[in-house]
């Protein structure tokens, strides 16, 4: 009995030491792979119903945009526009654009975005690009962030070309 207690104590001490050295050991694997893929809570793929619920819960000040299934919001000094697929019955978001009122230095913004989205920035002529979440393209040109589901965008372009 005493031996079992000593062995159990040694196991507890070994696990505690391992967790102290490697704290990520206690994180579920599913959380380790989760990446941020939204702007102010808006994310490509969200249905228009989910979008409306988010606006109500966070008390965002929004109005209908150019079409019946697009929103334009003022959030923390940023002008945010959310575009949804009108041809799909669920009207999923395919693009979120946030124009920043005072973006600050571009290098600091790029580092901050990379840290927030846990993604590596790619420099291009137009600015910076990241692949975030489930393969969404996030771009930043120094003034605005643009989060796009490129597959949905291509599908919409093909549908418009057929018309």
Mean pLDDT: 83
Order of helices and strands: HHHEEEEHEEEEH
Structural class: alpha+beta
Low-confidence stretches: none
What report would you give on this structure?
This protein is α+β, with helices and mostly antiparallel strands and 163 residues long. 37% of the residues lie in helices and 26% in strands. The chain has an 8-stranded antiparallel β-sheet. A hairpin with a 5-residue loop joins strand 1 and strand 2.
Which helices and strands, and how do they pair?
Layout: H1 2-21, H2 29-33, H3 48-58, E1 61-64, E2 70-75, E3 78-84, E4 93-99, H4 106-117, E5 122-124, E6 127-132, E7 136-140, E8 144-148, H5 150-162
Antiparallel strand pairs: 1-2, 2-3, 3-4, 4-8, 5-6, 6-7, 7-8
Name its key features:
single chain; 163 residues; alpha+beta; 8-stranded antiparallel β-sheet; 26% strand
Brief characterization of the structure:
This protein has 163 residues and is an alpha+beta fold. Helix content is 37%, strand content 26%.
């Amino acid at each position: 009995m005493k031996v079992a207690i000593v062995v159990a104590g040694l196991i507890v001490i070994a696990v505690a030491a391992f967790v102290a050295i490697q704290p990520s050991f206690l994180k579920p694997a599913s959380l380790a792979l989760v990446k941020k893929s939204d702007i102010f809570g808006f994310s490509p793929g969200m249905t228009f119903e989910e979008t409306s619920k988010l606006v109500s819960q966070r008390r965002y000040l929004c109005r209908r945009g150019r079409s019946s299934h697009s929103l334009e919001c003022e959030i923390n000094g940023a002008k945010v526009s959310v575009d949804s697929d009108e041809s799909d019955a669920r009207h999923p978001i395919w693009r979120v654009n946030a124009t920043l009122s005072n973006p600050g230095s571009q290098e600091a913004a790029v580092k901050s975005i990379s840290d927030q989205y846990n993604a590596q920035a790619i420099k291009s002529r137009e600015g910076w690009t990241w692949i975030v979440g489930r393969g969404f393209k996030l771009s930043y040109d120094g003034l605005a962030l643009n989060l796009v589901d490129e597959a949905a965008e291509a599908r919409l372009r093909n549908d418009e070309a057929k018309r």
